[in-house]
TrEMBL record:
It holds the Pfam family ABC_tran. Coiled coil: none annotated. Residues 2-228 form the ABC transporter domain. GO terms for molecular function: ATP binding; ATP hydrolysis activity. SUPFAM superfamilies: P-loop containing nucleoside triphosphate hydrolases. Keywords: ATP-binding, Nucleotide-binding, Transport. This is ABC-2 type transport system ATP-binding protein. InterPro entries: AAA+_ATPase, ABC_transporter-like_ATP-bd, ABC_transporter-like_CS, P-loop_NTPase.
Length: 310
């Protein structure tokens, strides 16, 4: 269990993390999704005691990180997989981690096995690892102390689609055994594949939250037609707002049956009609990404994203 309450970090004028609150429950994988610069790493660094919050608190298993008797046995952390010492071999890094936590060296081998790094790979220097191999090794280090909680910053970075599915299965198994997982990503697709619950952060603030199903089914309907303007007008007349999605299709909260009826009554032929699924989340996420790329517009974008607050 991770409990975060009003967590805030200011760097001078910049509020990198702004009143972030959430609970990550045992048995679930929570995805922390936000564009680059949104405040994911800063939040996670505060959770694991590497950065002092300006205000607010983070508790892991009911205690602040610094109060955990043997943190590595309770929470596994992967912050920056590229930060590992390139001159050491994978096996050496795991032995060192085992030593620091007072664990038998054999636990290092067990961790290697859990992340599917072969003994031959473990004998290579990390400097020669691909990013994906570094991520696996980083996860092995996080798992070595058999913790109850995992906090992983962008662990799927550099993994191919098969690697992302592998990580989903690994984290699913960890959660099924009663563990709590918080992982961040700047890619919606990764979070969609891996997470049960989603927390969306933009400009330091939580802008949406819910189970994956909730966030994906709130997506409404997508309708493509030869005459989107006429369809939009007919939907409006029937009391349903719509907007043109970036793909050119109309996106509306009305269900597919309603859109079909309206199109029939108006004589507009539909060329595609389907549940928008993740499109709603994707559009919101794209808007956040746009916003965070425009420096200096922070105040305006903050009020803009508030409209979607969960
Ligand atoms: N040590 C620091 N000093 C000043 N600004 C920082 C520092 N660390 C992060 N920031 C800023 O805080 C914001 C959030 O960064 P970060 O938490 O790394 O975002 P994310 O991990 O979501 O990409 C960014 O604008 C970043 O430039
Ligand atoms: Mg980051």
């Amino acid at each position: 269990m991770i409990t975060v309450d009003g967590l805030t970090k200011r760097y001078g004028q910049l509020t990198a993390v702004d009143e972030v609150s959430f609970t990550a429950e045992p048995g679930r994988v929570m995805g922390f999704l936000g564009p680059n610069g949104a405040g994911k790493s800063t939040s996670m660094r505060m959770m694991v005691g590497l950065s002092e919050p300006t205000s607010g608190t983070a508790h892991i298993l009911g205690r602040r990180f610094g109060e955990l008797p043997n943190p590595g046995r309770e929470v596994g952390v992967l912050l920056d997989a590229s930060a590992q010492h390139g001159g050491r071999t994978g096996r050496e890094i795991l032995s060192l981690a085992a030593g620091t936590m007072g664990l038998p060296k054999a636990w290092g081998d067990a961790a290697l096995e859990r992340v599917s790094l072969t003994p031959e790979e473990a004998r290579r220097r990390v400097g020669n690892y691909s990013l994906g191999m570094r991520q696996r090794l980083g996860i092995a280090v996080a798992l070595i102390g058999d913790p109850d909680v995992l906090i992983l910053d962008e662990p799927a970075n550099g993994l191919d689609p098969a690697g992302i599915r592998w990580m989903r299965d690994l984290l699913r198994g960890f959660a099924n055994d009663g563990g709590t997982v918080l992982l961040s990503s700047h890619l919606l697709h990764e979070i969609e594949v891996i997470a049960d619950d989603i927390l969306v952060i933009g400009n330091g603030r939580i802008v949406a939250r819910g189970t994956k199903e909730q966030l994906l089914t709130e997506g409404g309907t997508l309708a493509r037609s030869a005459d989107p303007a006429a369809l939009a007008a007919a939907l409006r007349a029937a009391g349903h707002a719509s907007k043109q999605a970036s793909s050119g299709a109309l996106h509306t909260e009305a269900d597919a049956g309603t859109v079909g009826q309206v199109a029939l009554a108006t004589g507009v032929a539909l060329t595609e009609l389907r549940a928008a699924d993740s499109t709603g989340l994707e559009e919101m996420f794209l808007a956040l990404t746009d916003d965070s790329q425009r420096d200096g517009l922070r105040d305006e974008t903050d009020t803009k994203t508030e409209g979607t607050a969960a």
